[in-house]
């Protein structure tokens, strides 16, 4: 198995010895274990003859431990090895599943995820709910249909190893950022079903379902800030023009306010989305043509929706503007992500 196994670990017990023994039996080329600031070094001393053991002087987080190992791997074992497989130190990943994910990298995969079945009753409630919520957000906001977003069993090609060294995040949010970076760079993600093992109901997990979930959702919300900002600009300009043109015919008033507001906000939004949010590598002309095609359609839909609802319901245009543009905002985000700023897929 011309793959290097990487095990980040914090305060391990004897299960770490079992994981290392199983990896040795499967003849992985190398094993790198990262001690992320553990207070007791006993188990790391035991495995030191069989593994490369790297130490953090204090706990820096799982993300930092993984990047420490990836950097060490690139300096010492690449390109002789063809990739790495990441696994947890608590023996919750079956060795056959670890081997299967590593083999998939050798066959054709770029990023391979070992995905658990979260419909099983024996899975702890916090893990079941946390994963389902995160998977829903990934699917809705990012267009990533991943059944197990928090899996620690992942196999990476050498290209992914180099890419993910630049991925932000020091703790559990790093694993989420890894998936977002794969999406951004058009990296194929393969999912392999694995055994679902929770020892002692996952009591030894260092994942905090509240604090670490907040970090994860903050990462996802970064996709939305530019659109929300431009929506605010759009609404502010629209409100100002509605007031300024209050003596103009209603249809012309709404059309002029909508057009000018969208022209201002769309310019700011295009620059932010291309360069900061989606970080598209596509040409400026192509992206701009697609973006403004969408923008014109969205503007006409906004005008038509607000005007029609104004006549139908008799509400003030500002209230209806919020309702109509919120729906259009959600639709527009999906189209921008999947069409306007989508980078070409790597094979």
Question: How is this structure best described in words?
Answer:
It is a single chain. This protein is α/β, with parallel strands linked by helices and 347 residues long. It contains twelve helices and seven strands. It has a seven-stranded mixed β-sheet, with helices on both faces.
Shape: elongated
* Overall radius of gyration: 25 Å
Low-confidence stretches: none
- State the secondary-structure class: alpha/beta
Distance between the termini: 23 Å
Strand content: 5-15%
Structure annotation, total helices = 12
Please outline what is shown here.
With about 350 residues, this protein is of the alpha/beta class.
Characteristics of this structure?
347 residues; 2 domains; Spore Coat Polysaccharide Biosynthesis Protein SpsA, Chain A; alpha/beta; elongated
Present the secondary structure layout.
Layout: E1 4-9, H1 15-25, E2 30-36, H2 42-47, E3 52-56, H3 62-76, E4 83-86, H4 95-107, E5 111-115, H5 125-142, E6 154-157, H6 158-164, H7 173-184, E7 189-193, H8 211-221, H9 225-244, H10 250-277, H11 284-313, H12 317-340
